[in-house]
Design brief:
316 residues, alpha/beta, 8-stranded mixed beta sheet, 13 helices
């Protein structure tokens, strides 16, 4: 067990809104007292869009490059129909088909490299969340989970984490433990805010104790899902709003569970939640709104004396 602070960087999912993470990290990395703090952390964990950012950070891509990467992911790798509100996506899902994920895989392969594996860098440890179809099992790809995960390719585990249901098909990843492929969809179904998963894994595997754990969690400028009971009763079953409601509510409540449990386990001085809210909600598929609004919001958070002070105390 560690005799020094064990530091975790947790990156939420959120589609195009993950631009907030890249811009925030870029801003704080330019502060002399902060710098590229994540390179000295012990564990980086990410879900879905946050997994894309986490993978890029792990291979030491600078955050300004990650911002450009994520804009390209949003613009080129996902079908335009997705960003127009999932209307066509939901029709395709009803017929059992999905959009091709080949463009996303090609782009991530260019960034990560085709042969980069989870065992290529000892520190920070990388962890990526996903949901296994076969057993409805939560999955965290990482050497901290099982040593055989070191041989898994970075591209594959990030693709699995970002396999949004109804948009992309499930994604197969070879499972070293069972010696066969298993199939995965988006980790946001249970771990959109993966800081709880990181906490559990770190404690379970003897990497740290509660007293030594420090967590920096960065959101994606989303807001908790909300509707009135009247609005809920007006939704037509099997309609687009029906599926939006179920998916968004499940993701939002899972986030709240993660935050609530970690906040109970750890002293407030050892947990930093970085996020921001706008007057108008930006949906995960709204690329242009994310480009327009999130850099300014991220810069505002990076200039917050409270955030900078607490971040300094965690990395000290």
């Amino acid at each position: 067990m560690s005799k020094h602070p064990f530091r975790v960087l947790s990156l939420n999912g959120g589609g195009a809104r993950a631009l907030f993470q890249a811009h925030f990290l870029n801003c704080v990395s330019k502060l002399p007292e902060i710098g590229r703090f994540w390179e000295d952390f012990d564990l980086i964990i990410g879900t879905s869009a946050g997994a894309i950012v986490a993978g890029a950070l792990w291979i030491k891509e600078p955050p300004e490059v990650i911002a450009d990467l994520f804009e390209n992911v949003s613009k080129d790798a996902f079908p335009q129909a997705l960003w127009n509100g999932l209307r066509i996506t939901l029709r395709l899902a009803a017929t059992g088909t999905s959009f091709s994920n080949s463009s996303l895989k090609k782009l991530l392969t260019q960034v990560y490299g085709a042969d980069t594996t989870l065992g290529d860098f000892a520190k920070p440890i990388l962890a990526i969340t996903a949901t296994e179809i076969e057993n409805s099992r939560i999955r965290v790809f990482s050497p901290i989970t099982q040593s055989a995960d070191r041989q898994l390719k970075l591209v594959d585990v990030v693709m699995a984490s970002a396999a949004l249901p109804g948009v992309f098909s499930d994604y197969p990843v070879f499972d070293p433990e069972s010696n066969r492929p298993r199939h995965y969809i988006d980790g946001c179904l249970w771990g959109n805010a993966p800081l709880l998963a990181a906490t559990a894994l770190s404690l379970k595997n003897g990497k740290t104790s509660l007293s030594d754990l420090r967590v920096v969690s960065i959101g994606t400028a989303g807001q908790p899902y909300s509707m009135t009971s009247h609005q809920y009763r007006q939704i037509t079953v099997n309609s687009a709003p029906f599926f939006h409601c179920l998916f968004d509510m499940a993701s939002s409540t899972a986030e709240r569970v993660s935050f609530a449990v970690v906040d109970c386990l750890l002293d407030p001085s050892r947990v930093l939640h970085v996020d921001g809210a706008l007057d108008k909600i930006i949906k995960a598929w709204e690329i242009e709104a994310a480009r327009r609004e999130l850099p300014r919001l991220a810069e505002s958070c990076a200039r917050s004396p409270d955030i900078v002070s607490k971040l300094r105390s965690i990395i000290a």
